[in-house]
Amino acid sequence: MLNTPWETGSALYRRLLLSALVITAGGIITAIAGAMLNSDALLYIAMPVIIIGLATHIAGLVVRGRDAKRRHQGHKNP
What we know:
Layout: H1 5-8, H2 11-36, H3 40-76
């Protein structure tokens, strides 16, 4: 059995990770559309969307670290 972060992660971690992927992908698609259409407005909209996606991803990493710390402390003190 593989011990991947997805298998051992909490439901909150999984939701944050999927949300981050979707938000970041939406920002990238918006940026590509803005570049293809020569639309500065779309490019300026895409930047904060990508930043929000990355912030969501970082929040997921914090939750994953917190969960790992709790799991580690649980094994340390039986």
